[in-house]
Amino acid sequence: MDKHVLLIEDEPNIIEAIRFILSREGWKVSAHADGTTALDVIRQARPHLVILDVMLPGQSGFDILQALRSEPGLETLPVLMLTAKGQGRDRDLADRYGASHFMTKPFSNAEMLQEVRHLLGQGA
Amino acid sequence: MPRNALTGTRIRERRVLIGLRQADLARAAGISPSYLNLIEHNRRRVGAPHLKAIAQALGVDPAALTEGAEAALLQGLRAAAAAAQPPVLPEIDRIEEFAGRFPGWAALLATQHGRMAQLEQAVERLTDRMTHDPHLSASLHEVLSALTSVRSTAAILADTEDMEPVWRARFHRNLQADSERLAAGAEALVAYLDASAEEETGLAAPQEEVEEWLAAQDYHIAALERPGATVSEPPGGVLATASARALARDHLAQYARDARAMPLAPFRAAVEEEGPEPGRLAARFGVDVPAAFRRLASLPEVSAGLVICDGSGTLTFRKGVPGFPLPRFGAACPLWPLYQALSRPMVPIRALVEMAGRVPQRFLCYAFCQPAHPQGFEGPQVLQALMLVLPLPAGAVGPLQGVGVSCRICPRAECPARREPSLLAAG
Q1: Which domain holds residue B125?
Q2: ipTM confidence
Q3: What angle do CA B391, B403, B206 make, to 5 degrees?
Q4: Does B51 reside within a domain?
Q5: Which helix (H) or strand (E) holds B385?
Q6: Fewer Cβ neighbours under 10 Å: the N or C end of chain A?
Q7: Contacts by A61-64 with C-beta closer than 8 Å and gap 24+?
Q8: Minimal-distance CA residue of chain B relative to A18
Q9: Taking CB atoms and an 8 Å cutoff, what residues of chain A touch B144?
Q10: pTM, to two decimals
Q11: B146-161: per-residue pLDDT in tens?
């Protein structure tokens, strides 16, 4: 079965790049740009992995992560947090709210691929 | 003349006594009128050669002008002592002996303390800026976002050999757009950091720059006193930062409004008749009370100090008078009538005060607080309180309120409003 990756990110060109590199590996990639409706989209789509940006219009990635972790059935969903601010504070918050992994922008494509593979349980 | 009057004050008093104009004394002493003005307001220390020339022009012995001039130095030393941390314990009770025996070292210590306080302020401002500046944060985010896309897209183009032309073209377009965005973002960031280097490494806070500029003209802006005068741009040379120029611009605009409502000649005549009583003057000219406060402070002959604070008690305007020092940084004395006014908006307050010091000096204060609602009924109430500090008129009677400058350097041991211990020996 194709693994489904849901990308919550508001930069169209970043979406396009990530979609390209992940699709090429055979994964199904969908994207959503709005923070306020992200949780509904995750509930409906039931992806295998969420890539979640921190700075989103409407609602921050941290809020979405918190809501997600308190929702039955979504507590263990793998979440890869993306942030343009690599400071310790964001990393700490991501840890505390239960992100599976944390990656700073600008990331390398190889790094992204490796981490997604790892989180989808496919090893390198 | 009070025993502890500062040199500048003595020069001014002597000059007025013999009916010499400031410009004439400056010419006789070979210094610029604006420099003399700073000296007379105790804003500049007068050096020995200038002092000699001034004393000669005034026909007095230089010593007559400097006797007791150590008051400012002593205040500086007390402020330095107040900031000392244990186990460093300056011998505060021997502070005058120290200043007398080692005037050079004492001056150095006081000057360095002032400099240190300025630097601490500058560091605080810069830290604030780095951690809380939304513009900086947004610019960095923009640059990092564009860079993320560029890096990822460029790697795709470099690593993918069998890419369909349609995709290749699309990624090239993205790359092009993002590199434009990156360039613009980086440019904005550099411009911003450049501007803030100019703005924020200046050690004087914008408010201090404006105060120096106003003090140099004795808070009287002659150019705005002519009928039909229009507000011109504040001078860029004296006011180095954009924030200071913005403050000065607001001040000039308000000054012009006040001068229109209370033209100089009729206002002077009214002060002559009524005395410097802001309530009656406001009623006579049909203006609000704060306007009369400001207008009185713009007349050099009234010798009025003026302090203005906002609803948090922060001083937003400071025009000092000799004998009534204003704190450079931090909060002032909670017993100032200014703060009583702040807690009782629209109630006029008149109080006789005695400023603590070696030789306590007495003043007449008027204070008033006016609420404003710039955003109408729905918006917040914005408070502004003002206090006018006038020389005590002969024969003024009433209860005397003891006040100080600021708790840490105030000698009043038994003060009910004290917020922190004084580090001064009493007296």
Answers
A1: 76-129
A2: 0.87
A3: 80
A4: yes
A5: strand B382-391
A6: N
A7: A61/A8, A61/A35, A62/A93, A62/A94, A62/A97, A63/A35, A64/A8, A64/A35, A64/A38, A64/A39
A8: B152
A9: 84-85, 105-106
A10: 0.54
A11: 999 999 999 999 988 8
